[in-house]
Amino acid sequence: MVRSLLWRGLLAGVLAGLCAFLFARVFGEPQIDYAIAFEAQRAAADAAAEPELVSRATQAGIGLLTGLLVYGAALGGLFALAFAVALGRLGGLGPRPIAAILAAIGFVAFVLVPQLKYPANPPAVGVEETIAARTQLFFAMLLISGAALAAGASLVSRLVLSIGRWNAVLAGIAVFLAIVGLAGIALPAINEVPEEFSATILWRFRIASLGLHAVLWAGLGLGFGALADHLLAPARRRPSPLGAR
């Protein structure tokens, strides 16, 4: 069963990656083109232009597509494993609702929360010398958010029998928000946006980045839910021995 779910997760992830690629081409790439043009102007003014190792067409085409397909497949495999763990543990919910819930939780914990603290930046935004530090801070926030999710889920499982499912879920959400909120306050802020860079382009790029991940997670949740439902439907429709008597 797990192997069948895993293959469906990989397939759903690839399809979700394709949807994310189409979204990025329409909404994300124009903002990147503007940022690259801005960076080129600054480099020309500083006489520090560097040779282009990979053409822009390759980056925005086959490079972006390959990256999103591989990322989607890997994410789909992990999603399938999480689904296998959650199956049968969320009351009487079927495969589609479970997949949708997992996708929503994953998007919030692993995309929305980290990007609220450290939003994505286009090229030409940020100082080259701080790339390593900025990357470490982002992944620190990502790990903290994942740990907060695990803590909240653990609390829900411990409290569900004593205070009920609804109250346990609310308690788990409160723990998650408290942990990520404290982390957001404790971790340092980063603001390296050049004053002359367009605030509109920056805003559009960050919205497009969130939108790309939203499309990826939504496609994964909906696609995997449909595939898993098709796999598990015969087992749910099979009459029980008691009912067959």
Topology:
Layout: H1 2-46, H2 56-86, H3 95-117, H4 131-163, H5 165-186, H6 199-237, H7 241-244
Keywords: Membrane, Transmembrane, Transmembrane helix
Organism: Aureimonas endophytica
Transmembrane segments: 62-86, 98-116, 136-156, 168-190, 210-228
Short description:
The protein is mostly helical and 245 residues long.
Principal-axis shape equals flat
Number of helices: 7
SSE order: HHHHHHH
Total separate domains: 2
Radius of gyration: 22 Å
What is the helix content?
over 70%
Oligomer: single chain
Question: In what range is the share of β-strand residues?
Answer: under 5%
Distance between the termini: 28 Å
**Unreliable stretches covering 5 or more consecutive residues:** 240-245
Mean pLDDT: 87
How many strands?
Answer: 0
For the biggest sheet, the summary is: none
**What class do helices, strands and sheet pairing give?**
mainly alpha
